[in-house]
Amino acid sequence: MIILVINCGSSSIKYQLLDMKSDDAYDIIAKGIAEKIGLPAGILQYSPIGKDKIVKDVPIPDHKVGMQLILEALTDKETGVLKSLDDIEAVGHRIVQGGDFFSGSVLVNQDVLDKIAFCADFAPLHNPAHLLGIHAMQDVLPSVPQAVTFDTAFHQTMPAYAYMYGLPYEYYEKFRVRRYGAHGTSHQFVAAEGAKMAGLDINNSKIITCHLGAGSSICAIQNGKCVDTSMGFTPLEGMIMGTRVGNIDANAVLYLQKKLGMDPDQMTTLLNRKSGFLGVSCKTSDAREMDELANGGDPKAKLTLKKFTYDIIKNIGSYVAVMNGVDLIIFTGGIGEHNSRLRRRVLENFSYLGIKVDYEANVAWGEDAIITTEDSKVKAALVCTNEELVIARDTMHLVTDNQE
Fold first, then answer.
1. Which residues lie below 8 Å from residue 252, measured CB to CB, with a gap of 6+?
2. What φ, ψ does residue 269 adopt, rounded to 5°?
3. Which of 100, 168, 289, 362 has its CA 20 to 30 A from that of 116?
4. Which residues are known catalytic residues?
């Protein structure tokens, strides 16, 4: 089954075209990204597997045009990988926030669209963009079935005492204010892959997964099910991130709002777009640039990285307590997969658990690896996430089951 996987951001569309024969037998045919949508100068990247990447500077005024450009690239007579759009049998979308409406992937219908729209208040930077992507694909490929996979679905197994806030209960009943988490698709995938690598039965295991990137979250997974996660009502809560503040006393937000004379929208921008790495370092939200600044002696960059490392350690430690132990700690995401020094610094803090870092294995860069020694009482691994594969698998099953 030829499946196009779409991941829409507010100004970008990441995509991957896969030929799914089964869950574990598949080929990636092409992938790429349409960037700077709605800005004066757009960029379309298209990478047919086994061939040179093509980069075009082209205006992309909206997501519908972005989708059209992606489909034109896939069907181009000279560099395309499809004979026609009729070759696409299904489309799968990543959705950040599904609230407590969805505990798994579903086919798109009007009820699903309405619920994604309802959850837009919980993820204002993400869900509206996802809806734009779905509607754009409906316009371009109206007869092709579409499915959606939710980042929040995996976290629906959290017990109430883990997801509830200490607010009046009526606000949960009326407005659904609770912890939802994010990155669930990634946490679910790497936990399963990591368990195989470590020789664990995931249904009898205690695993902590660290998805570390521009957005970061940590998840406690017991017997294959999420029992807690660091992100909250929105992806803002948890550890310090690229531009997100992470955990903060709510009164500090109200205090600053009064002092700075900000309205709620301005405060939302401050907390989501101007804080985190960017806010503390005063220079960059990019972890690679932060490393360079810290290596050059920049004190704020050093502080930022130390806080990031500390937040990871603190979250892992709390989840060890929650599960009364841990069998495997997994690192994934752009930072988790490519920063061996960060992994080492985190793991060395858990020597009391009997963790022994394999320093030679830990230099792995963007490839799956066990990074602890054979006699380490707790294993640790680098597992490259593949959210697109999870979405493609779920889409394949949903479409196939619907056809039977």
1. none
2. -65, -45
3. 168
4. 151
